[in-house]
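Design request, tokens follow.
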């Protein structure tokens, strides 16, 4: 399953829980603050994820975990994090929860991150080892997340 769908499904389960067991903020001021922070995180997340995707497209390499990459991408946001698309999706997810002032998607994000970090990223990193020393050097200077 494509990773963006994992984020989406987790979020939708959270929306369902929010509908069944509503959790709301006590004050309007807190709700407005959550929405403002949510907007910033949502925009920043989609911008970061989109930038990472654009660079992969320009490099003509795959975005599918487990598929053999054609190139090792180390420019743009990849200078700072080896997974800007996942970091961006995470920020956007947090932003959406803030914009809609929803609590239940937040604990489900933890499970999503565990899945991505323990099952998806190791598969991707294994395929990047074909780049040998170049990947080892890159891995030593760019963090997995942020």
């Amino acid at each position: 399953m494509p990773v963006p769908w994992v984020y989406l499904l987790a979020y939708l389960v959270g929306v369902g829980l929010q509908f069944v067991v509503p959790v709301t903020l006590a004050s309007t001021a807190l709700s407005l603050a959550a929405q403002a922070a949510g907007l910033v995180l949502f925009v920043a997340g989609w911008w970061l994820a989109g930038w990472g995707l654009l660079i992969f497209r320009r490099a003509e390499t795959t975005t599918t975990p487990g598929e053999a990459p054609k190139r090792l991408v180390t420019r743009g946001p990849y200078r700072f994090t080896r997974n800007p698309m996942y970091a961006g999706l995470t920020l956007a997810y947090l932003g959406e929860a803030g914009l809609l002032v929803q609590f239940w998607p937040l604990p489900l994000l933890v499970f999503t991150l565990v899945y991505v970090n323990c099952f998806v990223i190791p598969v991707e990193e294994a395929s990047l080892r074909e780049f040998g020393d170049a990947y080892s050097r890159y891995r030593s200077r760019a963090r997995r997340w942020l």
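Comment from the thread starter after seeing the answer: thanks! The longest helix spans residues 28-58.
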